[in-house]
Amino acid sequence: MTMILFQNATLLDGSADTALPGHHVLVENGEIREVSDRPITAASARAVDLAGRTLMPGLIDCHVHVIATMADLGANAELPNTLVALRSARIMREMLMRGFTTVRDLGGADHGLVMAIEEGMIEAPRLVICGKALSQTGGHTDYRGRFHHRDVEYYGDKAGTLGRVVDGVDAVRRVAREEIKAGAQFIKIMANGGVSSPTDPIAFLGFSNDELRAAVEEARNAQTYVSAHLYTDEAIRRAVECGVISVEHGNLITPETARLVKERGAYVVPTNVTFDYLAKEGASLGLPPASVEKIEAVRGQGMEALQILRDAGVMMAYGSDLLGEMHRHQSDEFILRGQVLPAMEVIRSATVNAAKVVRQEGRLGVIAPGAHADLVVVDGDPLADLSLLTGQGRHMPAILKAGRFVKNELNA
């Protein structure tokens, strides 16, 4: 039996409107057993006096691509599977050391990586996957280029691909079922043009309405949901009307469509940091010129969308969506959102809101009895300074996953 008693902690998980000083948290066998504003007696527990430091639940990033080891995703798809797996392990360990104890992969990661993490073969966050995303011919994840006619099935089993190309209602149903059978916990579809793919301008609508509805029906039949890559207002509206619940990006949304998202019980995962760094570093890291040209079409309005979504009361979750060497900027999304949103709302996006997205309410994203003991200790007050959540974990002297220290510089 492993027990840890955190004393004199300031709790911050977003479930209250403020941080809560003077609290004590007892961890036992990987879970939080007790939380109290009075001293807890546990003679056999290892006592750790936090002396007022902030104690947060492990952060949750709801939009990552752990297999995207290169900015040029077409080239990434050609890499050997073994190399992609090993690089992905390193990417995930670095995420964990930034305080992200759970990540939701939006295209590419397979159940083998989930198993490797659960078996303790690699040190990584909890991994929630959609398997390969679904894209139409010429859509976002069809990286063949205008004059490249290689059969799309060539990419289906490549570890470095984000998605699979499928056309027609029957094909959408079949591939959705195949991904769920292979361990996908939700379905991802590419319902709009994208930056990193070569032949689909941003405004392109991915899939017909019937194809969208087929994906939604298959997900619902499997007791799960559909997430969709979306930028333009038209694409967002029709996807939500067809039953999509998780809107990824959402940069070009209007107030009217934001209200529709709220009415339908959907939510949005903005990812502004990826556009910021694609513009700054994408070209130097191998992003093709055609992709670089598309960045500004969505970059500027992404920040405006945060306020539009807030005004409509839409739930937002944290997402980064970075590629290759840009993964190191994962935590900078906190800073960008903090320019528009109150700090507490930004923190909620990576805690209680994100837990709803990964369908782990009460188990992740909170410091409460019965929750997983995924915890982060922060020097200072993130509500006063969101940059304390950046810097590659520099301000986090301790990180726990499932009640075990994966980082401990507390001298306790």
Automatic annotation (TrEMBL):
Domain Amidohydrolase-related, first and last residues per copy = 54-391
Q: Which domain of life is it from?
A: Bacteria
Pfam families attached to this UniProt entry = Amidohydro_1
The record's listing under InterPro entries reads: Amidohydro-rel, Metal-dep_hydrolase_composite, Metal_Hydrolase, Metallo-dep_Hydrolase, OTAase-like
Q: Which PANTHER family match?
A: ALPHA-D-RIBOSE 1-METHYLPHOSPHONATE 5-TRIPHOSPHATE DIPHOSPHATASE
Protein name listed in UniProt: Amidohydrolase family protein
Give the originating organism.
Pararoseomonas baculiformis
